[in-house]
User: Which sequence fits this backbone?
């Protein structure tokens, strides 16, 4: 599959630049993806964030340098840490011991090897999905800018929901289109490591003051539906979005299109939860 080859090409780039400055947007370009989609794909397929993988690989190589007698300050600079303190913190986060103890021996260290992606068919449970071509539409609501690794975004998104609820903004959004479900739209910025998270409803009304709108382009969507007794039930093990990427996408004949990911909350009350995950795709 072309996109798996592209992911491995990105890994090759990372491995050849572990002692150089690594720009995440360049890694994503090697995978022929937007930065947002690459980070999401990487985290789902590898189980760790991109930043954590790079840190683990650098700290694995750093052990050999320290055992060879190189000074801590030299090893820190080699792997682009601008102070021994920052390097020490990164090293201990991986190995649970200070780098100064390595040369004495007798300490337990960790070794993380280079990743290699391949297609593996997994999953015994069915995935309910449909492919739909949809015209462009508007979502009106409130948004927040996010920065960092996609794997770490659950907490700030949850906090944003709480702010909207307590401020009354959530009620104003829902009142725009009473029969429409809530749309979560993750909007990638193609040029930076930032993206915008928009929570709103699909509507053609003029954008009210203190709200904002986003035009979702025309895409082909792979739409996956999930139901459960509560939110925790449907979000276990990463939820339907993770299964869609891990199990469905590799053998589907599709690849990621560089559009927004969308979650649509059809129902979320005391009777249960129904939601859809919309994945923008294109034929290989």
Assistant:
């Amino acid at each position: 599959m072309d996109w798996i080859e592209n992911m491995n090409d990105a890994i090759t780039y990372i491995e050849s630049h572990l002692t150089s400055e690594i720009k995440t947007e360049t890694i994503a370009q090697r995978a022929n993806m937007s930065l947002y989609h690459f980070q999401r794909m990487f985290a789902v397929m590898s189980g760790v964030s991109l930043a954590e993988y790079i840190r683990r690989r650098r700290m694995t190589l750093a052990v050999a340098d320290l055992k060879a007698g190189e000074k801590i300050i030299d090893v820190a600079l080699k792997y682009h840490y601008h102070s021994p303190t920052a390097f020490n913190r990164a090293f201990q986060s991986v190995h649970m011991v200070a780098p100064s103890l390595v040369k004495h021996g007798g300490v337990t260290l960790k070794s993380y090897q280079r990743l290699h992606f391949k297609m593996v068919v997994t999953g015994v449970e069915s995935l309910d999905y449909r492919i739909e071509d949809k015209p462009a539409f508007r979502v009106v609501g409130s948004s927040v800018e996010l920065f960092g690794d996609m794997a770490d975004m659950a907490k700030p998104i949850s906090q944003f929901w709480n702010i909207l609820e307590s401020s009354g903004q959530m009620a104003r959004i829902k009142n725009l289109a009473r029969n429409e479900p809530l749309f979560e739209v993750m909007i990638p910025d193609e040029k930076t490591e930032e993206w915008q998270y928009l929570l709103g409803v699909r509507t053609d009304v003029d954008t009210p003051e203190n709200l904002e709108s986003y035009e979702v382009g025309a895409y082909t969507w792979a739409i996956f539906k999930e139901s459960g007794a509560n939110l925790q039930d449907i979000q276990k093990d990463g939820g339907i979005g993770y299964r869609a990427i891990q199990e469905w996408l590799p053998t589907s004949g599709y690849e990621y299109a560089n559009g927004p990911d969308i979650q649509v909350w059809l129902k979320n009350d005391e009777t249960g939860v129904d939601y859809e995950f919309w994945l923008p795709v294109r034929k290989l």
